[in-house]
Q: What sequence folds into this?
């Protein structure tokens, strides 16, 4: 469980410090000391209370006594480093010295400094805290600069997990060739992003990139879209039409959901790959297919081949260079990296001053299994930016299924099936994003009906604030 997101307190902002001591007089004195020096001060009487605050609140500094009941300073230090690795942690004691083995252990766990009680020079204490904060700020700015360079340096794909680094290395190798690529992975993993990266890094980057969803249109329309048609080829064809293969001449054609392609279209695509030519619908002449083909699917093509639903020879023609994308749940801290990137994007678009995530929200994002992958994550962050009223996303702002960590949220009453079960029952063509939107819209419409169209009452029915309801109603065009 790792805290992420918000930058350290900028120069001119009030840094937040948590004072932890079981002696009331010491807490009150340090509260006055740091408030006088321009800090926003939080107080905890022991390690357990402090740990709860670290989970809920954004902090810059934790200053803790070592010997305390219930949870001592060293145990608190471990918890802070697990929840908030970039927080400055200072230890204070009347028993240790800078040369003690106990202090060596605390340093090994990530403590930044040790103060002996009683403080000999209070100004020296506050000055050292300021210096440590400044060092942290500079480290953060350097890290952000490196992250920005890395994140934007690979054709817009965000990720640093070992699984994604393997994908990046493969893409860098593939882009130098003209070989056909087959990208596989669950829905929402970013297959089109990878296809665009291959095109952007290839020698064809100055030419068109054309994408088409093979599962979104009937067979006859797909053939006309890809190959074009001549006048009179079918009813309504009153003039010649250029196809996407011709429009993408010299560039890249991306065929998404290739597993949904009808058998007769599979034969025609196979011929294009074998002969590197195509023929317009209703035409007689051949045209050269000067394109690079990249296909993608969320289905298991070898299984479809075994079932006789996908041509084996076409599969081998497509699977020249396979690129398998890992699901988001297997990408570790990429979840938080992507979440921060998306949050910054939507904060700019909506004009919101939201900088990051509180520890509990970040932990929930990290722990959730993300059945809808990156697409679902982006939708969640967009919603959070729209609804958040503070400078950092709180756990309460996230959807209930993220707060509970259970993606199988009931859809309706009377023992309705779960979203996860519905996804399995709906088959390979199931679109989780569209399904979630349909469910959300349906609940909004029913609430409006029950409330006679009064939005404030509809918001109460759903347990939402009026502002939250108004945002969602506007999103779905509800009156």
A:
């Amino acid at each position: 469980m790792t805290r992420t997101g918000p930058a350290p307190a900028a120069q001119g902002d009030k840094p937040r410090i948590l004072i932890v001591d079981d002696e009331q007089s010491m807490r009150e004195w340090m509260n006055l000391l740091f408030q006088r020096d321009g800090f926003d001060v939080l107080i905890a009487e022991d390690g357990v209370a402090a740990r709860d605050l670290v989970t809920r609140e954004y902090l810059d500094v934790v200053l803790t006594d070592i010997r305390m009941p219930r949870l001592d300073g060293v145990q608190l230090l471990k918890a802070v480093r697990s929840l908030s690795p970039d927080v400055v942690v200072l230890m204070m004691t009347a028993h240790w010295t800078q040369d003690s083995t106990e202090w060596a252990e605390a340093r090994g766990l990530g403590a930044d400094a040790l103060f002996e009680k009683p403080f000999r020079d209070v100004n020296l204490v506050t000055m050292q805290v300021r210096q440590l904060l400044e060092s942290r700020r500079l480290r953060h700015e350097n890290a952000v600069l490196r992250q920005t360079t890395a994140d934007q340096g690979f054709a817009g794909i965000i990720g640093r997990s070992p699984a994604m680094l393997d994908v990046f290395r493969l893409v860098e190798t593939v882009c130098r060739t003209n070989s056909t690529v087959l990208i596989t992975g669950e829905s929402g993993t970013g297959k089109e992003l990878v296809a665009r990266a291959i095109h952007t890094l290839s020698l064809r980057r100055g030419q068109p990139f054309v994408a088409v969803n093979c599962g979104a249109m009937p067979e006859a329309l797909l053939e006309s879209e890809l190959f074009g048609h001549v006048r009179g080829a079918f009813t309504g064809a009153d003039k010649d039409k250029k196809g996407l293969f011709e429009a993408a001449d010299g560039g890249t054609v991306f065929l998404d959901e290739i597993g949904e392609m009808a058998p007769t279209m599979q034969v025609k695509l196979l011929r294009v790959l074998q002969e590197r030519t195509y023929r317009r619908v209703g035409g007689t002449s051949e045209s050269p297919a000067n394109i690079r083909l990249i296909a993608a699917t969320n289905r298991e093509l070898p299984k479809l081949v075994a079932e006789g639903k996908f041509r084996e020879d076409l599969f081998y023609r497509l699977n020249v260079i396979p690129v398998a994308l890992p699901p988001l749940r297997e990408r570790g801290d990429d979840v938080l990296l992507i979440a921060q990137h998306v949050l910054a994007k939507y904060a700019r678009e909506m004009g919101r001053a939201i900088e990051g995530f509180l520890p509990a929200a970040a932990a929930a994002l990290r722990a959730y299994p993300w059945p809808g992958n990156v697409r679902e994550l982006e939708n969640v962050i967009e919603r959070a930016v729209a609804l958040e009223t503070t400078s950092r996303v709180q756990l309460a702002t996230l959807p209930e299924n993220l707060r509970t960590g259970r993606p199988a949220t009931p859809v309706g009453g009377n023992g309705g099936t779960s979203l996860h079960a519905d996804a399995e029952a709906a088959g390979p063509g199931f679109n989780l994003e569209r399904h979630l939107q349909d469910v959300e819209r349906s609940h909004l419409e029913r609430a409006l009906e029950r409330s006679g169209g009064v939005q404030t009452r509809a918001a109460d029915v759903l347990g939402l604030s009026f502002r939250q309801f108004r945002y969602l109603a506007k999103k779905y065009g509800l009156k």
Notes: The chain has three domains: 16-149, 162-325, 333-475. The chain has a mean pLDDT of 82. The two ends are 41 Å apart (CA to CA).
